[in-house]
Amino acid sequence: MKIVISAMVLALTTLGAAAQEPALIPRPLKMEQKEGRFDFKSSPRIVADPVFKPAAGLLGEYLRLPAGTGAASAGSIVIVRGKENGYQLKIEQNRIVLSARQLADALDGVNTLRQLYLLNGSDLHLPAMHITDSARFGYRGMHLDVSRHFYPVEFIYKFIDLMALYKFNTFHWHLTDGAGWRLEINKYPELTKTAAWRTHNYCMDWWANGRQYLPEGNANAYGGYYTQEQAKAVVAYAAKRGITVIPEIEMPGHSEEVLAVYPHLSCTGKPYENSEFCLGNDSTFTFLEDVLQEVMAIFPSRYIHIGGDEASKKAWKNCPKCQQRIKKEGLKDEEELQSYGVRRMEKFLVGKKRKLLGWDEILEGGLAPEATVMSWRGEKGGITAAEAGHDVIMTPGGYCYFDSYQADPATEPPAIGGFLPLSKVYSYNPVPAELHAAKAHHVLGAQANIWTEYMPTTYQVEYMAFPRMLALAEVLWTPLQLKNWDDFKTRLQAHYPLLQKKNVNYYRPSYQLQIKTDIRPQTGSALITFDSEQYRPLICYTLDGSTPTAASAQYAGPFEIKGSAKIKAAIFRDTAMQGQPASLPLDFHKALGKKVTYNEPYYKGYAAQNEATLVNGYRGSLTYGDGQWQGFLNKGLDVTIDLEQATPLNSLSVGFMQLTGPGVYMPPAVEVYTSNDGQQFTLAQKIDNDVPPTHNKLIFKDFVFDLKGASARYIRVKAKTQKGFIFTDEIIVY
Ligand code: NAG
């Protein structure tokens, strides 16, 4: 009897396992499970059509199987030419057939098979299935800054290998920047003899301590560079895996290191004074063309990235040569001077059958005729360029900057700022809603950027890249309608052990809970949803602000509540709370959903929910980029709320945040006025700020006004800026 039961259990588990789809990331277009399984035990041969020989070789390496061309026998893995887009993979009882139209697609199929194999752990078989798959975007990129910190070439291999596993096809190698030049250039040896070495190891220390370069071999020198041989080997290694390497050589800004060793290329002629090349000087162009000439001999990519970001243009204003150039070329100003430089480089590159790629600043002063734009300051540059018929690659800071924090900064190693949790990366759609559908094809894809000011080790780079890279992989590959956050999280569970096996350091999903509310002012109710990075967490909550315990109500899915509540929720393991509870005061306050008139405009880049933001019942969270915090510049906040009728008042509170890094400060004071006719306002109270501008950690403050005894139809709230931005949410009236 006992034996029968365990046999039944076994049968059930096997069945259950068979019904489960494989945890592939990115999720393929179509997967169908079939009867039977393919066995690797007999050491099957991999046999490919001659055009797919490299794919067969690679698969052989991955699966440790013999590979070649020639005739297939029973039990073989064959790679054949197909007619359809993408690749088709048929895993059957006695064979595996991978078909593809071209090598790049066959390599994608190889990586699917490799992932299935790795996900299966030590099991030497794969369940039968048919996969039909192709990518949503043709450009699937990862960027890595090797200037701010230098990483050994072995790490570049590892990074590329992991990119391939998740079907990325472009590696953007940020090889030069002020913190160090990283590529051997034969004609200009000082670039690697001096400009690749600096006084301090940690970039931010170097930055804070005078930013000096040292000769190679100096006992205190930190740095390094890749030889041309090494770079060529990286290109070949990547190409074999279906990955194109795009080199970036920064110009005209971010070039302090070059000007330190070749000061005649700077406007003042002196080292350590400027970060921009002098564009009035023809030697600059000779230098850049010489460098690019050697770069092109190493990198066969169609695109060459010329940087173009954040040139201050200040030195050009006072430089007789630059001014002379402006005059002679009939340019309007320094912006057009930058554009002149970019066009000149483009002409050079086009002459060598290459294409120019640059950060979105290359739009300023007019875009070069055939340039492709990388949109990093939001999506605006990308939209403008695409509308004008240029190709674009989306890398907006809010979704693609993997140097941002992944969780509450208090719980994370130091990073540059920002907040980009896994779920936000996953939510990204590289085709902006505002873009005219007829121009959408100009969005070639997207890319995450890893700027490494705060990443002294490869260990840290991996931590910032994983698992966010997996979320981006799916953004770039899987059709929108198949994307599903919960399903992704489920599959992600299987990739943690895989990353461990590959010795990758990754960020562990946090216990931070997000409370989402869908408020319906008409019915005075709200739909509450909890979300976290954890997989199927046990969530317990209260609605009265008390700290939940394992005995509190258990979350079983979105639920509705009526009226105001103080939601507090946490994740539990058995009876133990994990991390800190999340709380959200939900306010069915008197101003909820009422009309707000802006006497001063909000900043369009941080519009949040536009006119609804300040009285929508949601409070801004830890980051000003969450779509709830509204930003104000210049004259600051000045809004009038219409309560629709004279209303007895009790209190008003309005929230602000301060985060000095990106220039977000408290207002010096907040004033509240009331009125019954919307014309004559009387000051009810003014509250001064007590957070000093030197407080450089993230801090929130509610300014709370006592309005007892007052009655009004209109309430006006004013708060000036002190410097930079103010960010506001929410105005709560009782
Ligand atoms: C920008 C800079 C980059 C820096 C990064 C940090 C671009 C195109 N330029 O200020 O040099 O490392 O952000 O997030 O991103």
UniProtKB/TrEMBL annotation:
Reactions this protein catalyses: Hydrolysis of terminal non-reducing N-acetyl-D-hexosamine residues in N-acetyl-beta-D-hexosaminides
EC number: 3.2.1.52
Sequence ranges assigned to domain GH29D-like beta-sandwich in this UniProt record: 528-576
Residues at the active site: 310
GO biological process: carbohydrate metabolic process; glycosaminoglycan metabolic process
Alphabetized GO MF terms: beta-N-acetylhexosaminidase activity
A Pfam family per the record: Glyco_hydro_20b
Enzyme class: hydrolase
Top-level taxon of the source organism: Bacteria
Domain Glycoside hydrolase family 20 catalytic: from-to ranges: 137-479
Domain Beta-hexosaminidase bacterial type N-terminal residues, every copy: 22-133
GO CC annotation terms, alphabetical: membrane
Keywords in alphabetical order: Glycosidase, Hydrolase, Signal
Entries under CDD domains matching the protein: GH20_chitobiase-like
InterPro entries per record: Beta_hexosaminidase_sua/sub, Galactose-bd-like_sf, GH, GH29D-like_dom, Glyco_hydro_20_cat, Hex-like_dom2, HEX_bac_N
Signal sequence bounds: 1-19
Matching PANTHER family: BETA-HEXOSAMINIDASE, BETA-N-ACETYLHEXOSAMINIDASE
Family the UniProt entry places it in: Belongs to the glycosyl hydrolase 20 family.
Name this protein carries in UniProt: beta-N-acetylhexosaminidase
Species: Chitinophaga lutea
Organismal lineage: Bacteria, Pseudomonadati, Bacteroidota, Chitinophagia, Chitinophagales
